[in-house]
Amino acid sequence: MKWTIVLIAMILVGCAQEIPESEVPSEADVATFAGGCFWCMEAAFQGYAGVFDVISGYAGGDVKDPTYEHVLSGKTGHRESVQVFYDKSVISYEELVRLFWRQIEPTDAGGQFSDRGEQYTTAIFYHTEKQKVAAEKSKSEIAKKFTEPIATQIIPFTTFYKAEEYHQDYSLKRTRQYEQYAKGSGRKGYIERVWGK
Predict the structure, then answer these.
(1) Residues with a known catalytic role
(2) Model-level pTM?
């Protein structure tokens, strides 16, 4: 009986869904975006050719090593964000920025969809002057599509703290819960309505 329990435990552990750790080459470029809920932003960039990895975390702010609970309070100055590690010979920064715009409601200055507060506001954090120029150009182009002013900020990158492990690859680990959230928050419907499927 004891061995049966051990065997069952080993089988269950072996069957658990594991998301493999990606290996990001040292020469990879990085883009940092805040688009509201980082689960949704992470899922949007995953799987594109040239994207090595997407990490959920907290950008900006003035509190060192913030936790999810700290950021959720809205008092740290951090935004839920993602860092996208990519191969610029396969996918350009400009393409990533275009994809970013198609995941958000860029005229909303108070958060994104059902998530409200500074921690859910949108921003493009530029790492280089070239990224800044590309982001500003893209923002000018996207503004032509909307009647309201674009609220998304373009600001210099300062800090990024990786979010807790249970937030990483959330759409892959908890697909059903993620789909319910994406639909229930209003994000999915907005994207389909504004940008099409």
Answers:
(1) 37
(2) 0.86
